C-alpha cells in the first residue's frame, strides 16, 4: 500500500467511526496502467452453433436474469464483454464504482487472510482489461482477491488435500476466473467448468487455453452435461445461482444429486443463500439432502466489509449419500 492510500484509508476509517459519510473518488492514475490485450481468439462460427444448441436446451426456457438471455452472443449490447476486454467491469466481475482505496483495503485483507501462501502461486497481469491497482510490487484485481478469499475459505473447511485431487466442477464459471486460480494453486487435473450461456462457455475455454491450463481444466458444453456421468466431489457456484430462476437452480441441484456430489460451495449475491429476488435457496437444498457445514463473511470485519470490494457470504454445504 502506498503511503497516500494508507493515509486515505486511515482518514476514511476515522471519519466513518465518527459517523461521517465520505466518498473518496479515485483518479484514473490511481489504478495501474496496463497495455491493452490482443483479442482472445474465439471461433465465431462455433459460438453461433453453440448458442443455437444452448437455446434448445431445457435450461434455456427457465433461464433467470434477462442480462444472460440477451448476452448469449457478442453484439453491440455487450457493454464491455468483448474478446480483448472481457475481464474488465461487466456482468462477469463487477468492478465499477470502486476507488483505489477500496481496492487497497481489499488487497490488504486478502494478503492477511492468505494463510496457505496462495499469493506465491498465482498473480495478476491485468490481461483483458482487469482493473488493477499496483501495491507492494504486486498487481491486485478483484479476480485475484476474490479468488484468494474463496479458495482460502474452502481450504479452511474441506478435508485436507481436497482441492489438490478431488473432482471439482464450477457451475456458471464465467470466463474461468476461479478455475484458473484453483489450477494455479494446486496440481489438480480433475477440474471442470460449465455454464448455461454459450458465450461464457466459449470465453472460458479460450481463456483457460490462453492460461495454458486446458490439460487440467475441462470446459463442458451444456449439451454434454447429461453425458457426464462421473461423480463430483465438490461443486462451486459463485454469483451464478443468484442470477438464475428457481427452476434453473433446481435443475443444477438435481444434476449434482445424480452426480452424488459431496460438497457444494455457494457464494450468492444475496445472503441466505438467496436468489436476486430474495427467494431462499435453503428449502431447495434441504429437500435434496444438503446441510450447511460452514459459513463466513468474505470480510469478517464489518468496517472492512463496508468499504472493501463487494461484501458477500460464503456457504459450504455437505451432502451425505443416501
Ligand atoms: C456473475 S457471473 C459469475 C461468473 C463466475 N462464477 C465468477 O464468479 O467469476 C454469472 C455466471 O452465471 C452464468 N449463468 C447464467 N445463467 C446460467 C444457467 N442457467 N446455468 C449455468 N450458468 C448460468 C453466466 O453465464 C455467468 O458465467
CATH superfamily heading: Vaccinia Virus protein VP39
How many domains? The number is 1
The order of strands across the largest sheet is 5-4-3-6-7-9-8
Task: Examine the coordinates and then state which fold CATH places here, giving the name of the CATH topology.
Answer: Rossmann fold
Rg calculated over all Cα atoms: 19 Å
Uncertain residue ranges: 76-80
- The name of the CATH architecture is 3-Layer(aba) Sandwich
Mean pLDDT: 89
Ligand roster? S-adenosylmethionine
> How many strand segments?
9
How far is it from the N-terminal to the C-terminal residue, by CA?
Answer: 51 Å
Classification by helices and strands: alpha/beta
Helix content estimate: 25-40%
Q: Specify the number of helices.
A: 12
Q: In words, what does this structure look like?
A:
The protein has one domain (about 5-320): Vaccinia Virus protein VP39 (Rossmann fold), CATH 3.40.50. Helix content is about 35%, strand content about 15%. Helix 1 (about 5-15) packs across helix 5 and helix 5 (about 100-115) runs parallel beside helix 6 (about 140-155). The chain is α/β, with parallel strands linked by helices and about 325 residues long. The chain contains twelve helices and nine strands. The protein is globular and about 50 Å long. A seven-stranded mixed beta sheet has the order 5-4-3-6-7-9-8. It has a two-stranded antiparallel sheet with strand order 1-2. The longest helix is centred in the middle third of the chain and has 16 residues, at about 140-155. The protein binds S-adenosylmethionine (SAM). S-adenosylmethionine binds near residues 172, 174, 177 and 196. S-adenosylmethionine binds next to loops.
Amino acid at each position: 500500500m502506498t503511503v497516500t492510500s494508507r493515509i486515505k484509508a486511515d482518514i476514511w476509517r476515522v471519519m466513518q467511526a465518527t459517523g461521517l459519510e465520505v466518498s473518496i473518488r479515485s483518479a484514473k492514475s490511481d489504478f495501474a496502467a496496463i497495455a491493452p490485450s490482443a483479442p482472445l481468439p474465439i471461433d465465431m462460427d462455433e459460438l453461433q452453433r453453440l448458442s443455437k444448441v444452448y437455446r434448445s436446451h431445457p435450461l434455456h426456457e427457465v433461464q433467470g436474469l434477462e442480462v444472460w438471455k440477451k448476452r448469449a452472443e457478442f453484439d453491440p449490447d455487450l457493454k464491455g464483454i468483448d474478446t480483448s476486454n472481457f475481464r474488465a467491469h461487466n456482468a462477469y466481475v463487477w468492478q465499477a464504482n470502486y476507488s483505489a482505496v477500496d481496492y487497497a483495503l481489499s488487497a490488504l485483507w486478502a494478503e492477511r487472510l492468505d494463510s496457505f501462501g496462495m499469493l506465491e502461486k498465482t498473480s495478476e497481469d491485468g490481461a483483458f482489461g482487469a482493473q488493477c491497482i499496483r501495491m507492494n510490487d504486486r498487481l491486485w484485481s478483484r479476480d485475484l482477491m476474490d479468488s484468494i478469499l474463496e479458495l482460502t475459505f474452502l481450504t479452511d473447511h474441506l478435508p485436507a488435500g481436497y482441492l489438490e485431487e478431488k473432482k471439482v466442477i464450477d457451475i456458471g464459471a464465467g470466463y474461468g476466473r476461479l478455475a484458473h486460480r484453483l489450477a494455479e494453486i494446486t496440481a489438480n487435473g480433475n477440474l471442470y467448468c460449465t455454464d448455461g450461456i454459450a458465450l461464457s462457455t466459449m470465453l472460458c475455454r479460450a481463456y483457460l487455453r490462453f492460461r495454458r491450463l486446458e490439460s487440467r481444466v475441462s470446459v463442458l458444453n451444456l449439451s454434454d452435461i447429461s453425458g457426464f456421468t462421473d461423480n463430483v466431489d465438490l461443486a462451486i457456484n459463485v454469483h451464478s445461482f443468484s442470477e438464475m430462476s428457481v427452476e434453473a437452480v433446481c435443475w443444477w441441484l438435481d444434476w449434482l444429486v445424480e452426480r452424488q456430489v459431496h460438497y457444494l460451495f455457494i457464494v450468492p449475491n444475496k445472503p441466505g443463500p438467496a436468489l436476486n429476488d430474495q427467494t431462499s435457496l435453503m428449502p431447495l437444498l434441504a429437500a435434496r439432502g444438503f446441510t450447511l457445514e460452514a459459513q463466513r463473511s468474505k470480510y469478517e470485519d464489518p468496517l472492512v466489509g463496508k468499504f472493501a470490494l463487494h461484501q458477500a457470504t460464503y456457504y459450504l454445504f455437505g451432502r451425505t449419500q443416501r
